[in-house]
Every structure is written in structure tokens, then in C-alpha cells.
Amino acid sequence: MEFDFATLDPADRYKLLIQVIVPRPIALVTARDRAGRINAAPFSFFNVMSQTPPLVVLGIEGRPDGTPKDTVQYPRETGEFVVNMVDFAMAEAMNVCAVDFPPGEDELAAAGLTAVASAKVGAPRIAEAPASLECRQHAVFEIAPNGRSILVGEVVHLHVRDDAFADADRLYLDPGRLDIVGRLGGTGYVRTTDRFDIKRISYAEWLARSG
Ligand SMILES: Cc1cc2nc3c(=O)[nH]c(=O)nc-3n(C[C@H](O)[C@H](O)[C@H](O)COP(=O)(O)O)c2cc1C
């Protein structure tokens, strides 16, 4: 089937895009506002885009009334946030953080997650996360009048759970021990339990292979 994005309904664009661009990693973002309030919410329009500078990117919708979500507003006030990666053990808790709680409700407490002080930014990280990336806001792009923004963060500090390393001296992580989950469309998620390797090949190897 073919879909012309010039005429496709926005809801259908979303429906199709989130089903074909899979699996998406999930950033459980913790942020603090000027008054010290803490917010936590998951985002799967998320990835790393550069290592020098080390940049991560988040696509964040506006609220139905067009105002920005707290995950855009809080870093706007403090210039900082933390991306906590989500493993299988904390997947349900991550989902609780997406509940539309009334203002003032502590999402992390409701989800049974533990906020601990970060090393370089004011926003806390989540103790249960297998990895947490402390970020300074690099840029925010308001890409539509409905409050949709792209938030770019520069990673200034990384925490990785000690037991997730297969060989810490060589910085090799074991994906099975990290157990990070990804998001499919709708309510679907995946684990990294079905893995395979593909070795990169040089041009000489390519020539030798193709005879
Ligand atoms: C797994 C998952 C992924 C999500 N990804 C996004 C996303 O990429 N962009 C977005 O705007 N909302 C996303 N949401 C919804 C937000 O988490 C939700 O609207 C949250 O309440 C935003 O809260 P905030 O106002 O505290 O920032 C996602 C929810 C879940 C459960």
C-alpha cells in the first residue's frame, strides 16, 4: 500500500509512523523546574544523534490545549534534564509515569521509583534505571503551533549499572544484563532477548566474497 503524506490525516500519519519505525528506545526523562518540582515522563520519539558533541533528541507533543508538556517547560527553566533508560524490570513503573496526574503529584513516588541526586545537573536520576544520561539543554525547536517541540540535550555525565558490563576495562556492555526495552506501536514493547551479530566487511572482503 502507498500513503501520500500530503493528504494523510495527522492521526493516521502518527499511527503508521509509530508502527514502522520500531523498536524505539524509551527515555524516561526526569526534570526539575525553577521551584524545585520534579517531573518524570517517558518518550519514545528519542535517540542519540551525535557523539561529539554528545547529543540526544526527544520529540515532544504539546498538550491538547497547545501548551508545552512539563518535559519541555522544566528544562526551559533550568536548562537541564536526565534521560533514564528503561529495563524490563521497570517497564510497568515507566508506564505509571505517563499517567496524566494532577499538578503536584509525585510521579516517581507513585511509580515506586527512587530519585537520587545526579552528579552534574540539578534534576535527579532514577536509581533503578540501568543507565542514566545527565543532559544540559542544547536546543529546543518549536516545530508546530500545537506545542510540538524537539528537545536536544548534550550528555554531560553517564551512569551505567556496574553489573551491566561484560568487560568493564574495554567498555563492553552485555545487552542481556542491561535488559533495555523498546517500544513498538500502540501498547507493544520488545526486549533484546533475540539478538544476532553481523560483522562489518571491508571492500577487499566484499570482493573476495563476490568472486
Ligand atoms: C512508552 C511511552 C512513550 C511515549 N512517548 C512519547 C513521545 O515520544 N512524545 C510525547 O509527546 N509523548 C510520549 N508519551 C506520552 C507522555 O509520556 C505523557 O504525555 C506524559 O504525561 C508527558 O508528561 P509531562 O507533561 O510530564 O512531560 C509516551 C508515553 C509512553 C507510555
Provide structural commentary.
The protein has a single domain, classed as Electron Transport, Fmn-binding Protein, Chain A (Pnp Oxidase, Chain A). Helices cover 20% and strands 33% of the residues. The strands form four sheets. Strands 3-2-6-9-10-5-4 form a seven-stranded antiparallel β-sheet, covered by helices on one side. The longest helix is centred in the N-terminal third of the chain and has 11 residues. The protein is globular and about 65 Å long. The mean pLDDT is 96. The structure holds flavin mononucleotide. Flavin mononucleotide (FMN) binds next to strand 3, strand 5 and helix 2. The site of flavin mononucleotide (FMN) has 17 residues, from strand 3, strand 5 and helix 2.
CATH architectural category: Roll
End-to-end distance, in Å? 38 Å
How many domains, in number, for the residues? 1
Q: What is the rounded Rg?
A: 19 Å
CATH topology: Pnp Oxidase, Chain A
**CATH domain class name:** Mainly Beta
The shape is globular
- Please identify the structural class as seen in this structure: alpha+beta
Query: Strand fraction band?
Result: 25-35%
Query: Low-confidence parts, pLDDT < 50 over ≥5 residues?
Result: none
How would you write the strand order of the largest sheet? Answer: 3-2-6-9-10-5-4
Specify the CATH homologous superfamily. Answer: Electron Transport, Fmn-binding Protein, Chain A
Average pLDDT confidence is: 96
Major β-sheet annotation: 7 strands, antiparallel
Enumerate how many helices there are, as a single number. Answer: 6
Task: Give me the count of strands.
Answer: 14
- Give the ordered list of helices and strands: HEEEEEHEHHEEEEEEHEEH
> How much helix is in the residues?
10-25%
Q: What small ligands are held by the chains?
A: flavin mononucleotide
